[in-house]
Amino acid sequence: MAMATSVCLPSPLATGATAFRAIPSRASTSYWGCLLRRPRRLGRTAAGMDALHVSSRDTEPLLHPGAAAAAATATHRRLRVRTHAQGAEDASTAAGGGAAAEADYSLAAIILPFVFPALGGLLFGYDIGATSGATISVHSATLSGTTWYGLSSVQLGLVASGSLYGALGGSILAYRIADFLGRRIELITSASLYISGALVTGFAPNFVVLIIGRLLYGVGIGLAMHGAPLYIAETCPPQIRGTLISLKELFIVFGILLGYLVGSHEIDVVGGWRYMFGFGAPLAAIMAIGMWSLPPSPRWLLLRAVQGKSPLEDNKKKAIQALRRLKGRSASDKVLTDEIDNNLSSIRAAYADQAEGSIFQVFEGASLKAFTIGGGLVLFQQITGQPSVLYYATTILQTAGFSAASDAAKVAILIGLFKFLMTGFAVFKVDDLGRRPLLIGGVSGITIALLLLAAYYKILSGYPYIAVGALLLYVGSYQVSFGPISWLMVSEIFPLRTRGRGMSLAVLTNFGSNALVTFAFSPLQGYLGPANIFLLFAVISVLALVFVILNVPETKGLSLEDIESKILKK
Hints:
By secondary structure, the protein is mostly helical. Helix content is 69%, strand content 4%. α11 (298-306) crosses α13 (333-352).
């Protein structure tokens, strides 16, 4: 008999004590925004049950009907995910025994460990959106409010890209210190740098101080884009890991929109660029306070113990305490201890395969396979032409007769809204459809859109609506594929022993290729023209599609330990 599992949000939502409950049922249930609704039908095979695996631990009996009824009427509603245990129990499951384990997650366990790290992504997006208006303001003789407004093109470029250079530096810094600091402290440090960078930039008395502030803010971006996906991946239930990490991309897009809106509001104010840059400080303060209130990642605590960097028993107790804070006070000691013991065994097994190596161990064995997948995705994310398409967006819309296109800010907001909607689609479908289908479908759409844009500039210039359709197809396809899925795959694909360093290299690859595309775009634009630029990016997109089909695995429903053992070590 097949089993359907659905996750729903019961009403009312009036108090924080309200939590999610996942119950076996044949009927689909609705819930708020469909964020956690993931109906699945799985056979009774061990492989099928892996898709609902929360953590590998000792088996516990399935709740009998009486216990299930009692749980359903409990006053404190919680998220209950029934999963078949892994490891030695697989054989008995296949034979029909079907042992199971129960994992409880409170509302706070799902929402808070996501929201506060995701604010790091929102602040990254906000910088992108706000900078477009701030560079206009700071360079204006009437609006700058400074005596040094006459910036050269190089100086203006440094204002615009200073945070990018800082992010590159932050990625390199994370490679060396992230595993030492831990995900939580790394994100607190990132928030502190966001606050410092925003305030220094907002109160900058001269150009040099302005650039220092931009660099500080950029280092915060580098640390946040490294630590946030890791913290979310290591603390959330695996059934909704894809949804939550992809939702972080939605926060980035929302941050871009917020930056555009603040820029539009302050663009006519003297010294408005100070408010645009400084607005990030209070948002970062919320992030810092929130991260301070959260526990460290239990997996990171166990990793430090296995590495011999901290006493085993002390860190094991800390990991149990952290897991209790994530799951809620009512979680039983046995469930917590079993899960920590099982994770500890998984980490020890990973280290037994290979002795502690050098800082280059990320280029060896399973870690190299993971970096090929993750690094390839974030590289193609940047070199498949998104800056070029958006650069020509205003011209395309103007040609099609859209009056709003005469105002670049309005164009940016309209495209930002469309990006937001399409990213939302990816967020709500990634744990249903899977990573590969969204990537393959999205990259295929990107390729078609680029070919249509090239054709428009070569032979179809009399049909502007083709260009508008291609523009929307490109933006939509990007936001359901490379936009959210690349960061999701990077956060979950690396083995635990090299996850921190692997993620650092992936972030470095992302920002490095971003800088390369930024610098190369202007000369390519002048040398090739728009038609040939789009043809070039279409060829790169075909290569990206081949890469995805041949190299990117499906990780939907797998725990982080299962990804390492079943995909990377094949």
